Amino acid sequence: MSEKSIAPPKQDQSVSYDRLDQLVRRFEKIFNLLIPLVAVVVSLLIVSIIVVAQGASPVEAYAALIEGAFGSLYNLTNSLAMATPLILTGLGIALAARCGIINLGGEGQIVAGGVFATFVGTLPALQGLPAPVYVTLCVLAAFLGGVLWALIPGYFFAKHGVNFMITTMLLNDIANGILSALVQGPMKEPGKFAPQSAQVAVNARLPMLIPKSRLHLGFLIAMAVAAVAYVVLFKTSFGHDLRTLGENPTAARHSGINVFAMQMVIVVIAGGLAGVAGSAEILGSQYRLRSGFLSNYGYEALAVAMLGQKHPFGVVVAGILFGALKAGRGSMSRAADLPTSFSMVLSGVIIFFVAISPILMKLPRYLAIREMNRKGRQPETSAKAA
Known about the structure:
The protein is an all-alpha fold.
């Protein structure tokens, strides 16, 4: 008599999804730290395939990229200088995102800051001021410019619920149009053909931190802002209220938080920091206003905030990474015979993986709930939560 083979019991797929969901929830902080690293590694692998398809060597391309970004003191300072506006704008975007506000207007706010800083920095009546006073006035003017450009959409969002992303994004084009008109008209350098402003006064420029480099005081300002943002966000009651509002607006309202005031404060901070980013580039690097003087930096700063997981120190690291990609792309292009815009492909792939990471984190939970609903049962995590 032959023994009948007993088939092993089928594993309940919904249970495995639920256990995976519990694992993701238990180690959520670790996963959040790993997401940017995994995004960068996967992006490098995908871009390597594209490089090979172009007939170039990925090893040579990435070696040249690293050399161009960090291979010498000048290259390193160049990377940090390019990272400075990204960090400043990214910090404002990250704080706004913590509050539940997605700021797509960094581009226009940067332009407004650059215009205000240039206007003050080229005023003949102020050029006799001591350098510390003059620089401070220019930076404050830039902060005000960024605030004014964010304040109108911020008010209508906080007061009437008008879509903040759409209004700020539309204002970017308006800001660039005004900038183009200014450098070809009222702010154009007298007696010159090129559409650009006159240079800001020497005593209105940010001092260089290292001689014969591009690293200016703006980088230290960005580091100081990141430290202050961390303290405010995680060590104060204001930061707690801000995070509560971003995570659960209904609970925030019921707990007595003044939602309108909180949102307006965050809009002011985000716009002001983007304005300071514009002034850092004008007063520390270019010394004059031109159309597109920081083209696409507002949108790239959004990617910096996402890659940095909306954490101030994460924004600093992500900003330096993107600054290095900008600084090293020329060397990468020459070494591997690639277009200079190829580094944007790498940046774009990184942004893509960071953008879909929240979906991947929630996927086990979604699958578990779907399976349990199909079988008329409740997931284990739901029962425990209840």
